[in-house]
Design a protein that fits this description.
Blueprint lengths: L2 H12 L12 E3 L9 H11 L2 E6 L4 H5 L2 H10 L3 E5 L8 H8 L4 E5 L8 E6 L3 E7 L5 H6 L4 E7 L3 H16 L1 E2 L2 H10 L15 E2 L5 E2 L2 H15 L4 E6 L5 H12 L4 E5 L3 H14 L6 E5 L2 E2 L5 E5 H4 L2 H7 L6 E4 L8 H9 L4 E6 L10 H4 L4 E5 L1 H6 L6 E7 L2 E2 L2 E2 L6 H4 L2 H14 L8 E5 L2 H13 L4 E3 L6 H12 L5 E4 L14 E5 L5 H9 L11 E7 L7 H7 L6 H9 L9 E4 L1 H13 L5 H15 L5 H7 L4 H8 L2 H7 L9 H14 L6 H9 L6 E3 H10 L6 H11 L6 H7 L5 E3 L3 E4 L1 H6 L3 H20 L11 E2 L1 H7 L8 H4 L2 E4 L2 E7 L16 E4 L2 E5 L9 H7 L5 E7 L11 E9 L5 E6 L5 E11 L5 H8 L4
Parallel strand pairs: 2-3, 3-4, 11-17, 11-18, 12-15, 12-16, 13-15, 16-17, 19-26, 19-27, 22-24, 22-25, 23-24, 25-26, 33-36
Antiparallel strand pairs: 1-7, 2-5, 4-8, 5-6, 6-7, 9-10, 13-14, 20-21, 28-30, 29-30, 31-37, 32-33, 34-35, 35-39, 36-37, 37-39, 38-39
Helix pairs in contact: 5-8, 10-11, 21-22, 23-24, 26-35, 29-35, 30-35
Organism: Vagococcus luciliae
Protein name: UvrABC system protein B
Length: 958
């Protein structure tokens, strides 16, 4: 580590805040939900990069420990070890967490004997420096992610006085502490008295006062108000979309209590749900027991005021004839996504209630049936998984994406033979991983989802043989058999139920504390359904452990898609959601082991997410929901599909609609070209300036827009600008910015030209404004681009780790665009901006250059780079870099050359400065066996590349 870096960092922190320094700066860390910044992220990043570590923390919970288990597992593979010093102070740490600590092979744990031990310190050793975090946060999930905590992160050379004092003190404490052993835990458990459970009353599925009266939580209140407004508008149907475990039944009961129907019918698809539903309704609606009845199997309570029936029974003509079409004034259908079946359709068509309510967690279907149409497109309220976690309606979950068994290079995939899936070594591997990641309370009550029936059956037997009581269920088992096995799981007689798909939905086992996935993710809907089996709150657990064994599956890209709820089909988003997993709210967390993460990246690279078949599915889903042809803006607003994916494929949205067999009024070739220009050049969301000017030009009375009006327009929107930006925007809009080839291609559809006062609409644009279809699509592109920018905070400059095309970089930096993008090659420079584009890991088949340029990161802040050839110390660009005081140098990285994905965009990793003493001229061989001059040098980045991003950019994914 360069001493000057640390000097700058310390001077900036403690002497002068204006000093330029990014690397090694002391950092004040406060959990910030809005910014998605948490102490947890900092600790995980330090662990990933460290060579050893010491955690000295008084309080540890299983959930807090879980947040770093994946990182510790990766460190174990590298041979990196650490130490944990903790205590029994105040009886906070329970026996379960001590047992969990012993499951981690690369840490040594000791117990401080110091009275009142209450430290909170995290120390990480690197090659030539140490980082330490000291403050108020223990190793608990609340402290790491939720609580208002103060922590300071500092960096020191190994011989610094402060770190030396801390290390000496820790060594002394460590020597005096006792070693944690199973025998110690056994003795501790005998006398351990658990702390009283903290009761959270303000956010739960239901609230209950001292008189036993139940009233709705905040989200249920919003849903009830929405249902009330829906009915007042004259609607007689409504749909509630609510994640599994969020209290849909109670919500329905509250609404029934409010409406007070003369007769009410509740329809479900499975008989065992009925009794639970009746109990929930009794708590809310009240009344005599005789008011409630069941229509199913042996029960035929046809006269009940509140009738609860299975669809199998209520759909029979005999019972419908007895009841009559006007029997009920309020009907509720649970799990209504199944309503495409004939039994449901016939029942809905027969009965004529005043109000029909449908409830589901997953309205999207794969068979093309439109649930939204069935309910007249009236979505009364929607709460998805992210919302439910935000509101603390679900049990927190800890997801671990772990690597599946591998031997001799053979990795589990979709076609793996059964004998390999049940190979004894794989079974031992699975058990080892499951024990390592554990569960709340250390006594598992788990569901294991397998890829095929025989695998589930054999694995259950093999687990049983190894002393882990387990059972197997399939679709062939009767309901009575399923209920018997579920009872065995709930009472602890068995630890696991192995199955294929029968528990995806419609089953309520609140005590489940572990969900294990041993199968390919075939759809994000099924993934969330299976995850949801463990998310119901229960006093027996504090969290749910989800262990996803990730093999070499083609569909691994669906994992980040499902966890984040991002269905944009934008590969960059999926990569981001695999790297940065802070999108989960509350006390839930996501962690991937490195190898598992790499398999997801490879799947994303290979996936054809923009195939016409896939885009048609997304299009049809949104059309089904809206009951009209959706526009690009709808896709952006609903998050169904990233409009960029459509434009990158079809160039304009109206061309995409042609492929969807939808038709609008004709658009001529020039108008089509204008739409292509605006869509391709501005939709990506670089800056709002051009879009706002174009939107102003669309106004009926607009034939020109003066410079002062442009400035006033930007000022009214709070958009920053300067003379350079103004000149750049006007040049982009009148096409003079673009290199000659691209300028020529766009010129027939030029929208504006520069005038003495500002910008003037071309004759073509004035005429095109008379075509309502053209204006519809042009306005749609403009509004969609602005909507994208709103979500980013209306940036007017380059954003760290965002992706850009070369020409977009030049535009945002107000540079000249003199040659086509391929001609730019590895770098370009003008207007005091020097921009370097690098493709890392170009691969054996990279043919774009005669010379192999070995550009590479030396570490997170140092980059080694080569000029083009032939270049010497006296070449113009080298002279600029040797004397770059008045120049800003930017680095953009394309992750790798990929035959399948063929990425054209570059990640922005920030500004940097050359390390002058490293600049030297050398000769390198070319592919035709000649030597050419080239200059190489090191750069120091102003911003250290974040560990997750660094791993992503530099990791070997082959």
């Amino acid at each position: 580590m360069d001493d000057t870096l640390l000097d700058k960092a310390l001077k900036k922190a403690f002497v002068d805040k204006t000093v330029e320094s990014q690397y090694l700066n002391p950092k004040f860390i406060v959990n910030d939900k809005e910014k998605k910044e948490f102490l947890l992220s900092t600790i995980q990043q330090e662990l990933v990069a460290c060579q050893s570590f010491i955690l000295s923390v008084a309080f540890i919970t299983q959930s807090g420990l879980n947040t770093i288990k994946a990182q510790l597992a990766d460190l174990a593979k590298q041979g990196v070890k650490g130490r944990v010093l903790t205590s029994t102070y105040l009886g906070f740490n329970n026996p379960d967490v001590f047992l969990s600590l012993l499951e981690i092979p690369n840490i040594e744990v000791r117990l401080s004997q110091k009275e009142g031990f209450h430290s909170k310190g995290y120390l990480f050793s690197h090659s030539d420096y140490q980082t330490f975090i000291i403050g108020s946060s223990n190793l608990t999930m609340n402290a790491l992610k939720l609580n208002y905590e103060w922590n300071i992160k500092l960096t020191s050379k190994d011989n610094g006085d402060l770190i030396s004092t801390i290390n000496n003190h820790l060594e002394k404490e460590w020597e005096q502490a006792s070693i944690l052993t199973k025998e110690w835990i056994r003795k501790f458990s005998k006398n351990y008295q658990p702390l009283p459970k903290r009761i959270i009353q303000n956010r739960d599925l239901i609230k209950e006062n001292t008189n036993g009266y139940i009233f709705p939580n905040s989200m249920q209140k919003e849903a009830l108000d929405s249902l009330d407004k829906l009915r007042k508008s004259g609607a007689n149907k409504g749909l509630i979309i609510s994640a599994t475990g969020t209290g849909k039944t109670y919500l329905a009961a509250f609404d029934v209590a409010k409406v007070k129907p003369k007769r009410f019918l509740f329809i479900v698809h499975r008989e065992q749900i009925l009794n639970n539903a009746i109990e929930s309704f009794k708590k809310v609606v009240g009344g005599d027991d005789s008011d409630y009845g069941i229509l199913s199997g042996q029960y035929k309570d046809l006269e009940a005021k509140y009738l609860f029936s299975t669809i199998q029974t209520i759909s029979k003509k005999d019972y419908q004839d007895i009841l009559g079409p006007d029997a009920f004034d309020y009907i509720l259908i649970d799990e209504v996504h199944k309503a495409g079946a004939t039994s449901y359709i016939n029942t809905i068509n027969y009965f004529q209630p005043t109000f029909l309510l449908g409830m589901t967690a997953t309205p999207e279907r794969t068979d093309g049936f439109n649930i939204f149409e069935l309910f007249d497109y009236n979505v009364a309220y929607e709460i998805r998984l992210q919302d439910a976690l935000e509101e603390d309606l679900l049990c927190p979950f800890h997801y671990f994406g772990v690597t599946d068994y591998e031997k001799n290079g053979l990795i589990i995939n979709e076609t793996t033979d059964l004998s390999y899936l049940t190979y004894p070594d794989r079974v031992d591997f699975l058990i080892e991983k499951i024990n390592y990641y554990g569960c709340s309370g250390n006594i598992p009550k788990g569901l294991v989802f397998c890829s095929r029936k025989e695998e589930a059956k054999q694995l259950a037997l093999l687990f049983k043989e190894r002393g882990i009581p387990s059972d197997f269920l399939s679709g062939e088992d009767t309901i009575a058999e399923r209920e018997r096995v579920i009872e065995l799981l709930e009472n602890g007689t068995i630890h696991y139920i192995f199955t294929v798909d029968i528990f995806n939905e419609g089953i309520d086992i609140p005590k489940i504390n572990q969900v294990i996935m041993l199968r390919n993710t075939e759809s994000n809907i099924i993934f969330i359904q299976q995850l949801g089996r463990g998310l119901r709150k229960d006093d027996s657990k504090e969290f749910v452990t989800v262990i996803d064994f990730i093999g070499n599956y083609q569909n691994n890209y669906m994992i980040p898609m499902a966890l984040s709820g991002d269905s944009s089909r934008n590969k960059n988003n999926l990569r981001r959601d695999t790297i940065d997993v802070n999108y989960l709210s509350g006390l839930s967390a996501i962690n991937f082991e490195k190898v598992a993460k790499d398999r997801i990246f490879k799947s994303i690279d290979a996936a054809k997410l923009n195939s016409l078949a896939e885009l048609r599915k997304s299009y049809q889903r949104l059309k089904n929901r809206l009951n009209r042809i959706p526009m690009l803006y709808d896709f952006e607003e609903m998050g169904e599909l990233d409009p960029l994916v459509v434009i990158q494929r079809e160039k304009t949205y109206n061309q995409f609609l042609d492929k969807m067999k939808e038709s609008y009024a004709p658009i001529n070739d020039k108008e089509q070209l204008a739409l292509k220009f605006v869509s391709i050049e501005f939709l990506f969301g670089g800056r709002p300036h051009e879009l706002l000017v174009l939107k102003e030009c669309l106004k009926n009375n607009r034939d020109e827009i003066e410079v002062n009006e442009i400035k006033e327009l930007w000022e009214s929107k709070g958009i920053n600008y300067n003379p350079q930006i103004l000149h750049s925007v006007m040049s982009v809009l009148d096409l003079s910015f673009y290199e000659s080839g691209l300028q020529k291609s766009y010129m027939p559809a030029q929208l504006v030209t520069k005038s003495s006062k500002g910008l003037e609409l071309t004759l073509f644009f004035k005429e095109a404004k008379k075509n309502d279809s053209f204006i519809l699509f042009l306005k749609d592109v403009i509004d969609t681009g602005l909507k994208k920018l709103e979500s980013k905070g209306m940036p007017d400059s380059l954003q760290l780790y965002s992706k850009y095309r070369r020409k977009d970089v030049l535009r945002l930096l107000n540079m000249k665009f003199n040659q086509n993008e391929q001609g730019i090659g590895g770098y370009t420079y003008n207007n005091n901006q020097f921009v370097i584009f690098v493709t890392l890991d170009k691969g054996k088949d990279f043919k774009a250059s005669l010379m192999a340029y070995e550009d590479e990161f030396i570490d997170e802040q140092t980059f080694h780079w080569f000029t083009k050839s032939p270049r010497t110390i006296d070449s113009p660009e080298v002279k600029i870099l040797r004397d770059s005081e008045n120049w800003t140098i930017h680095l953009f990285i394309k992750r790798k050359y990929n035959q399948q994905d063929r990425e054209t965009d570059f990640y922005y990793v920030g500004e940097m400065n050359p390390i002058i003493e490293t600049i030297e001229q050398n000769k390198k061989p070319t592919s035709d066996n000649t030597l050419k001059n080239v200059v190489e040098m090191d750069f120091l980045l102003k911003n250290r590349v974040e560990p997750n991003m660094y791993e992503f950019l530099t990791g070997n994914l082959d």
